[in-house]
Design a protein that fits this description.
Elements lengths: L2 H4 L1 H11 L4 E5 L5 H10 L3 E5 L3 H8 L10 H9 L3 E4 L10 E4 L14 H10 L8 E4 L7 H12 L9 E4 L18 E5 L2 H11 L6 E4 L2 H32 L3 H8 L23 H10 L6 H11 L1 H15 L8 E5 L14 H11 L3 E5 L23 H5 L3 E4 L8 H7 L3 E3 L10 E3 L1
Parallel strand pairs: 1-2, 1-4, 2-3, 4-5, 5-6, 7-8, 9-10, 9-11, 11-12, 12-13
Antiparallel strand pairs: 6-7
Helix pairs in contact: 2-8, 9-11, 9-12, 13-14
The structure holds nicotinamide-adenine-dinucleotide (NAD).
Length: 442
C-alpha cells in the first residue's frame, strides 16, 4: 500500500511538480500543442515547444501567431521571458521532466489509423529519454495505443513503466475558437499505465485545469475521446437524414430541433449542415471502426452516420443544381459565390471542410466560383484540392453579380442582411434564413 512512497522517481517528480520546478516539452505545436504550451507558461512552467515544421518554429521564435484565436502578443510575452522555448532540436527532450505528444493522427488512404506521426516522434526522442520522466500522449487514437505501442517502445529502451518512467494517455478536448470553454475549464481526462502514472499526470494538469477525471486505464481514456466524437458524428448523421425528411414534409427542421431542445432533460440539440469537417469528427470514428474489426465487430452506427454525412456535399450540389434549373440556368457557366470555407463558424481551419468538396464538384461541373471567408483572405492550398480561387469583397454590387450564393459556413461576422437583400438566389446549408422564393435550404 505504501509502494508509492518508496518509489524515488515517483516521489521526485511529484515534488518537482508541486514546487513548480519542472519543465515540459510539447511535441507538435499545432492547434492543440500551442494553446497547451501557453496554458503552462501562464502558470510559470518553462515549456519547450518542439515541431518538425521549420515555419512553425520560426513563427514562434519571431513571436508571430499562426492560429487565428491566439494573439502574437501572448506568444511574445512568454517567449521574451523564456517561459516558452521554441525548438526544432529534440535533443533537448533530455532536459524536460514531462513530455506531451500532440502530433496529428490522420487516416491513411484506406481510412485506417495512421500512427506514423506518433511513431516518428517516439523514434526521434528515444535517445534522449531518461529515468524519472513522464510521457503523455494527447493525440486522438484507438483504445490500446498507449499499452500496445508506447509502453513496449519505452520498455525496449530499458525503462520500467510505473517504476522509473511514467506513461499516460490524456485526450485533448480543445474546441478551437470556443470562448467559453478553454484549457482551464474543460475537464481533463486521464488514464495512466499505472496508478503512479495517473497520479503524476493529475498533479501536472491540475495546475492548468480546474477539474481532473482519472479513469481506470489508458484504454478507457482513449475510448472516451472517441465516444465523444462518435456521439457527435452519429447525431449529426441523424439530423442530416431528418433534414431531408423534414423538407419533404414541408417542416422547418431548425424550428423542430429548437423546440425539442426546450425539453429540460434527455435531449441534446445537433444541427444539420453541408457535411462533416475538421480534424476530428470525420476521422476519429474510423479509429474505433478499425479497432473493432480486430474483434470481428462491425460498427454499423458509425458507418451509417458516415454514409449519410459524406453524402451531404452532393446533396447540397443537387440543391444548387435544382434551384438554378428553376430559374432556367445550369451549374455550367453560372457564377456561384461560396460563403465560408472553414469547416465550422468563427475559425480559420478548413481541414476536411465540406466546402472544399462542394467547390470541387461545382468546378468540375463548369461553374465559375468565387468565395468569401473573412478567416481566409487567400484560398488555401490542400494536398487534395489545389485551386486558385479569388476572394471577393461582400458589397451589394458584388453580391448582385452572382447567379447564386451558397452559405456553407455561418460565421458570425457575415452581414446576413446584406447578403439576403442583394443576392439573386441563396442556398442556405446552415439554417440562417427562412425559406422564401429565392432562399433555399439545403
Ligand atoms: N485541432 C483540434 O481541435 C483537436 C481537438 C482535439 C484533439 N485533437 C487531436 O490532437 C492531435 C493534434 O492535432 P492538431 O490539430 O494540433 O494538429 P496540427 O496539425 O495542428 O499540429 C500538429 C503539429 O505536430 C507537428 N509534428 C508532426 N510530427 C512531428 C514530430 N515527429 N515532431 C515534432 N512535431 C511534429 C506538425 O508539424 C504540426 O505542427 C490529433 O490527434 C488531433 O486529432 C485535435
Amino acid at each position: 500500500m505504501n509502494s508509492n512512497k518508496k518509489n524515488i522517481f515517483y516521489e521526485k517528480i511529484i515534488e518537482k511538480v508541486s514546487r513548480k520546478e519542472y519543465k515540459i516539452g510539447i511535441i507538435g505545436m499545432g492547434y492543440v500543442g500551442l494553446p497547451l504550451a501557453l496554458a503552462f507558461c501562464k502558470k510559470d512552467i518553462v515549456t519547450l515547444g518542439f515541431d518538425i515544421n521549420e515555419n512553425i518554429i520560426n513563427s514562434l521564435k519571431n513571436c508571430v501567431s499562426y492560429i487565428n484565436h491566439i494573439k502574437s502578443n501572448e506568444i511574445k510575452k512568454y517567449v521574451s521571458n523564456n517561459k516558452l522555448i521554441p525548438s526544432e532540436n529534440l535533443e533537448s527532450i533530455n532536459k524536460v521532466d514531462v513530455i506531451i505528444i500532440c502530433v496529428p493522427t490522420p487516416l491513411n488512404k484506406n481510412k485506417e489509423p495512421d500512427l506514423n506521426f506518433i511513431k516518428n516522434s517516439l523514434d526521434s526522442i528515444k535517445n534522449f529519454l531518461h529515468k524519472g520522466q513522464i510521457l503523455i500522449l494527447e493525440s486522438t487514437t484507438y483504445p490500446g495505443t498507449t499499452e500496445e505501442i508506447l509502453k513496449p517502445f519505452i520498455e525496449k529502451e530499458g525503462l520500467k513503466v510505473g517504476k522509473d518512467f511514467f506513461i499516460v494517455y490524456s485526450p485533448e478536448r480543445e474546441d478551437p475558437g470556443n470562448k467559453k470553454y478553454q484549457t482551464h475549464n474543460i475537464p481533463k481526462i486521464i488514464g495512466g499505465c499505472t496508478k503512479n502514472c495517473a497520479s503524476i499526470a493529475k498533479s501536472i494538469y491540475s495546475q492548468i485545469t480546474e477539474e481532473i477525471i482519472v479513469l481506470s486505464s489508458t484504454r478507457a481514456a482513449e475510448m472516451t475521446k472517441l465516444v465523444e466524437n462518435i456521439h457527435r458524428a452519429v447525431n449529426i448523421g441523424l439530423v442530416n437524414e431528418l433534414k431531408i425528411i423534414a423538407e419533404e414534409l414541408g417542416v422547418d427542421l431548425y424550428e423542430v430541433i429548437r423546440a425539442a431542445a426546450t425539453k429540460p432533460f434527455g435531449f441534446m440539440p445537433f444541427f444539420p449542415g453541408p457535411g462533416l469537417g475538421g480534424h476530428c469528427i470525420p476521422i476519429d470514428p474510423y479509429y474505433l471502426t478499425w479497432k473493432a474489426k480486430e474483434f470481428g465487430i462491425h460498427t454499423k452506427f458509425i458507418e451509417l452516420a458516415e454514409e449519410i454525412n459524406s453524402s451531404m456535399p452532393k446533396y447540397v450540389v443537387g440543391k444548387i443544381s435544382n434551384s438554378l434549373n428553376d430559374i432556367c440556368k445550369s451549374i455550367k457557366k453560372s457564377s456561384i459565390l461560396i460563403l465560408g470555407i472553414a469547416y465550422k463558424k468563427n475559425i480559420d481551419d478548413a481541414r476536411e471542410s465540406p466546402s472544399l468538396e462542394i467547390i470541387d464538384l461545382l468546378l468540375k461541373m463548369g461553374a465559375n466560383i468565387k468565395y468569401n471567408d473573412p478567416y481566409f483572405p487567400k484560398f488555401p492550398k490542400f494536398r487534395k484540392y489545389n485551386y486558385v480561387i479569388d476572394s471577393i469583397e461582400l458589397t451589394s454590387e458584388n453580391l448582385e453579380l452572382f447567379d447564386c450564393a451558397v452559405l456553407l459556413t455561418d460565421h458570425d461576422c457575415f452581414d446576413y442582411e446584406l447578403i439576403r437583400v442583394n443576392s439573386k438566389l441563396i442556398i442556405d446549408t446552415r439554417g440562417k434564413y427562412n425559406n422564401s422564393s429565392n432562399i433555399i435550404r439545403a
